[in-house]
Design a protein that fits this description.
about 40% helix; 2 domains; alpha/beta; 3-stranded antiparallel sheet; Aspartate Aminotransferase, domain 2; Aspartate Aminotransferase, domain 1
């Protein structure tokens, strides 16, 4: 057979994302049984409409696009007005004084992470990450010759294993990547955990004679429960970077608008920012979508209806309790990550599929023995899935 693809990409296809595999399987089941008879918790695709400010922003923009260059090229770092507004907004959110120059608008958080890794990684460098983790992190790092080195969090609670992280910081480490609130576990790392991690990074950076970056991927920062606080790493560590997007908070996943915010206390930050602007361009992004940037300018500070997520979390927790599953109540985001019966995540996912329930095995997130359920679906779907989930649990448990 003729080889058309790079061997690395062929390998990626063989290990294709479990999330997408389940998404495709869901399409098959829905065509066969009807979408109302399939309980799809596989994909974190927000089902809530954007807030009203997005619609009004679109209407305003429609009246202005007849002007020359209204949808034309812009500075690669984003519209100056958007960078300024973002800096003001993030200064309050993160508890630091950010200027417009400290913020770069990107093609979603994924584009921001790729721009960052392209700017700082040399071939053979390592990025250390707690597991479970978003499955595509490893691809982003490998895109630029690096490797992702993972450290399992503590079982069921998903607290950071600080000793394990410290031991993982070898001579090739360039960055530590965290995601809080975490996809898939829903864990929010505490201030005490992050301060412990920062102490480790400072000490190891001194030993290496160069800084280790701390990168926080925060698309779910807006969505926490029970008054849980998401600590700011920008206020803790000078070589910190926050990457995020508006895909979830404004339900603009398809518009691909995110940002990178660099700690204002970082030494020689101008060099890093110049590199990030360059990589944002040369990776082919050029700039984040202009329509999305205008919408952010109009809707910044608004949110989707988070109360609906709170109610869905309650309903899904009760479903799992009745099914006899072990789980930690998520502190943020819209995912549950319960322990699979007998820690057989693939068997449990297969049993769920027989009941027309779709979820993703924890193996796909670097944490086997658990299963991810996304609860960004209608409350009625969650409630009606109770009996099918219970039957799947009983089947795998051998009851």
């Amino acid at each position: 057979m003729m080889q058309l693809l790079a061997r690395q990409v062929e390998g990626y296809l063989e290990k294709a994302s479990w999330i997408r595999q389940m998404f495709e399987k869901g399409r098959e089941l829905k065509q066969k049984y009807g979408s109302e008879n399939v309980f799809d918790f596989s994909l974190g695709n927000p089902d809530l409409p954007p807030p009203g400010e997005v619609a009004s922003g679109l209407k305003e923009l429609a009246d202005q696009v007849n002007r020359p260059f209204s949808l034309g090229y812009m500075p690669n770092a984003g519209l100056p007005s958007v960078r300024g507004a973002l800096a003001s907004h993030l200064s309050k959110e993160q508890g630091v004084n950010l200027s417009a120059e400290d913020v770069i608008v990107t093609c979603g958080a994924a584009g921001g992470l790729n721009a960052f890794f392209r700017a700082v990684l040399e071939p053979g460098d390592e990025v250390v990450c707690p597991a479970p983790y978003f499955v595509e992190y490893s691809f982003y790092v490998q895109n630029f010759g690096g490797s992702l080195k993972t450290v399992p969090c503590k079982p069921l609670t998903f607290e950071l294993d600080l000793n394990g992280l410290e031991q993982a910081l070898g001579p090739k480490v360039r960055a530590v990547l965290i995601n809080s609130p975490n996809n898939p576990s829903g864990q929010v790392y505490t201030k005490e955990e992050l301060e412990g991690l920062v102490d480790i990074l400072k000490a190891r950076s001194t030993e290496l004679g160069r800084p280790i970056f701390l990168v926080s991927d925060e698309p779910y920062r807006f969505l926490t429960y029970d008054n849980t606080d998401v600590p700011s790493i920008l206020s803790m560590y000078p070589h910190s970077i926050v990457v995020s997007s508006f895909s979830k908070s404004l339900a603009l996943a398809g518009e691909r608008v995110g940002y990178i915010a660099v700690c204002p206390q970082m030494e020689q930050k101008e060099n890093l920012l110049a590199g990030l602007i360059l990589t944002n361009r040369i990776l082919g992004y050029v700039n984040a979508p202009v329509i999305g940037q205008y919408l952010i300018l109009k809707a910044l500070g608004s949110l989707v209806d988070t109360k609906k997520y709170e109610r869905r979390r309650e309903v899904m927790a009760e479903v799992f309790r009745c099914a006899g599953l072990e789980f930690s109540l998520p502190k943020g985001g819209f995912y549950f990550f319960p322990r699979a019966p007998r820690e057989k995540d693939h068997e449990f996912v297969a049993a769920l599929m027989e009941e027309k329930v779709l979820a993703v095995p924890g193996s796909g997130f670097g944490y086997p023995g658990y299963v991810r359920f996304a609860f960004c679906v209608d409350e009625d779907i969650i409630a009606r899935a109770a009996e099918p989930i219970k039957r799947a649990v009983e089947k795998v448990s051998g009851e």
